């Protein structure tokens, strides 16, 4: 079988590798000579410069060769001249390829075209590239190929690298805000014997040492944080990975980063005030603005955040009063909307499906409040409306981008709701919450009033106007060729 053009190029590079070794050049040295960032060098325009990076362009031949060198901070042009470099070093230049890493040192000068350039006086190969990079113009066009070879996508698309710099700022801004407001960062278990804190299907794995099956957490330690509240902690938060074995879409992944905070002696009203400030601070520190264009919506986080009621909004948008409608009435309306629920769907799931048809029309930012008890098994009841709970969700660009509530701390009520959830699980609802006896026991020792809230990296993806998968460095894929 004849080799492909890519394989032919790889063979040629391996030949160059052999020639380098024959010349006594180590193509993969461990040490890099002292150097500065390219951005720092570019700021001074003259003098001696030493830089290291990847070669992304090589032009010319014979006695004069130009190249482009890039590091994480920027790019600069290099000039190799046969009468400046030693013959041995110029021989090395002729064995360089696009994609190689190199260190160079030399004097800065500006070409007639106005390009700041290093007149190279010495160089060292740092790493020989054996596989040629795709053209920057054509790049990796297939989405799966881009995700599978993300490292190449980062090389070709500096804007993609910038996205993840912003993502780091996003989480650091979140952490900094909470620390500045007196919250303590904690770590709670990733492996659990009872998956709690959310309605989701968990991943299951086996713990060999204990010989038990365990679940990967589906929330950012919600029930553990509440145990901490029982134990005397008053303000905690956690930023980490959580896992849900469910569908993939523009807004959903199976493993992703989540933040949750828990605040003793605060109701959901105080929590909403803090969350609005948190969103504005984090958005501004990350993106330098409070106005965003997100998937066809124009969102201004700086405008007043209104509160809308779950029941009233569904009634206004769909003409359905969920307080008086039967389960069959809701199914009939869903059928009119061309939504097909599962045969085992409970009233809780049907209400959630109905709400999802409404939220797409909401630009936000708004706080959705007044959720029915059925859809909120961990939230405290509203004393003025016992069939609803003190819960809120942040709605932006037609999606839920944060969830919080006054936490249920009545152990008897909690045990009853866990019992109702267990019946749903036994009826085939794999997302219903599991009965956690130890958590009920903890509540029986007494937990103060607590408000909790959480958002995931979906918020960052929305503000960046990217599908959430695009905002993950290395999204999960099937094994190659499957």
The CATH topology of the largest domain is BirA Bifunctional Protein, domain 2
Can you tell me the CATH superfamily of the largest domain?
Bira Bifunctional Protein, Domain 2
Mean pLDDT: 92
Task: From the alpha carbons, calculate the radius of gyration and give it in angstroms.
Answer: 29 Å
Strand content: 25-35%
The 3D shape can be described as elongated
Question: Can you summarize the main beta sheet?
Answer: 8 strands, mixed
Low-confidence parts: none
What's the level 1 CATH class of the largest domain?
A: Alpha Beta
Distance between the termini: 23 Å
The total number of structural domains is 2
- Give the count of helical stretches: 14
Please give the share of residues in helix. 25-40%
Strand order in the largest sheet: 6-10-11-20-19-18-15-14
Helix vs. strand class? alpha+beta
Number of strands: 20
Give the name of the CATH architecture of the largest domain. 2-Layer Sandwich
In short:
With 482 residues, this protein is α+β, with helices and mostly antiparallel strands. The protein has 2 domains: 5-133, Nucleic acid-binding proteins (OB fold (Dihydrolipoamide Acetyltransferase, E2P), Beta Barrel), CATH 2.40.50.140; 155-305 and 364-463, 2-Layer Sandwich (BirA Bifunctional Protein, domain 2).
Your description of this structure?
This protein has 2 domains: 5-133, Beta Barrel (OB fold (Dihydrolipoamide Acetyltransferase, E2P)); 155-305 and 364-463, 2-Layer Sandwich (BirA Bifunctional Protein, domain 2). It has helices at residues 5-22, 38-42, 87-93, 143-148, 150-156, 158-180, 222-230, 268-287, 310-318, 327-336, 347-359, 411-426, 437-444, 458-463, and strands spanning 48-61, 64-70, 75-81, 101-110, 116-127, 184-185, 191-192, 204-207, 212-216, 235-243, 255-264, 291-294, 297-300, 306-309, 366-369, 381-382, 385-389, 391-396, 399-406, 450-456. The protein is elongated and about 90 Å long. By secondary structure, the chain is α+β, with helices and mostly antiparallel strands. A hairpin with a 2-residue loop joins strand 1 (48-61) and strand 2. It is 33% helix and 26% strand. The model has no long low-confidence stretch (mean pLDDT 92). An 8-stranded mixed β-sheet has the order 6-10-11-20-19-18-15-14, with helices on both faces. A 5-stranded mixed barrel has the order 1-2-3-5-4.
């Amino acid at each position: 079988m004849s080799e492909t053009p890519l394989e032919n190029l790889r063979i040629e590079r391996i030949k160059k590798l052999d020639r380098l070794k024959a010349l006594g050049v180590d193509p993969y040295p461990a040490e890099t000579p002292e150097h500065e960032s390219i951005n720092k060098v570019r700021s001074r325009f003259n003098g001696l410069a030493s830089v290291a990076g990847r070669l992304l362009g090589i032009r010319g031949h014979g006695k004069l060769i130009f190249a482009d060198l890039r590091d994480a901070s920027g790019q600069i042009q290099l000039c190799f001249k046969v009468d400046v470099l030693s013959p041995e070093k110029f021989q090395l230049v002729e064995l360089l390829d696009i994609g190689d890493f190199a260190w160079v040192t030399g004097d800065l000068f500006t070409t007639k075209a106005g390009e700041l350039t290093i007149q190279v006086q010495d160089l060292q190969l740092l790493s020989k590239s054996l596989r040629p990079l795709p053209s920057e113009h054509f790049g990796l066009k297939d989405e799966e190929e881009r995700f599978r070879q993300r490292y190449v996508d980062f090389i070709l698309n500096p804007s993609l690298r910038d996205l993840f710099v912003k993502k780091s700022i996003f989480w650091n801004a979140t952490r900094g805000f909470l620390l500045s407001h007196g919250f303590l960062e904690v770590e709670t278990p990733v492996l659990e014997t009872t998956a709690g804190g959310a309605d989701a299907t968990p991943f299951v794995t086996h713990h060999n040492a204990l010989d038990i099956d365990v679940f990967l957490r589906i929330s950012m330690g919600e029930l553990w944080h509440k145990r901490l509240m029982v134990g005397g902690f008053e303000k905690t938060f956690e930023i980490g990975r959580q896992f849900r074995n469910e569908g993939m879409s523009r807004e959903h992944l199976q493993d992703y980063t989540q933040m949750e905070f828990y605040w003793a002696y605060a109701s959901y009203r105080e929590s909403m005030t803090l969350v609005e400030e948190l969103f504005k601070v984090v958005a501004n520190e990350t993106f330098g603005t409070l106005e965003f264009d997100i998937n066809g919506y124009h969102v201004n986080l700086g405008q007043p955040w209104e509160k809308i009621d779950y029941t009233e909004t569904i009634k206004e948008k769909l003409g359905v009063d969920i307080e008086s409608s039967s389960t069959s009435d809701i199914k009939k309306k869903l059928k009119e909307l061309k939504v097909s629920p599962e045969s085992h769907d409970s009233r809780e799931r049907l209400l959630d499906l109905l709400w999802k048809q409404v939220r797409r029309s909401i630009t936000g930012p708004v706080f959705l409040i007044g959720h029915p008890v059925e859809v909120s098994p961990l939230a405290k009841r509203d004393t003025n409306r016992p069939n609803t709970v003190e819960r809120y969700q942040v709605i932006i660009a037609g999606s839920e981008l944060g969830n919080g509530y006054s936490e249920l701390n009545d152990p008897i009520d909690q045990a009853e709701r866990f019992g109702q959830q267990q019946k749903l699980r036994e009826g085939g609802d794999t997302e219903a919450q599991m009965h956690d006896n130890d958590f009920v026991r903890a509540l029986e020792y007494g937990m103060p009033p607590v408000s909790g809230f959480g958002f995931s990296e979906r918020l960052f993806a929305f503000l960046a106007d990217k599908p959430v998968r695009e905002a993950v460095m290395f999204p999960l894929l099937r094994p190659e060729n499957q």
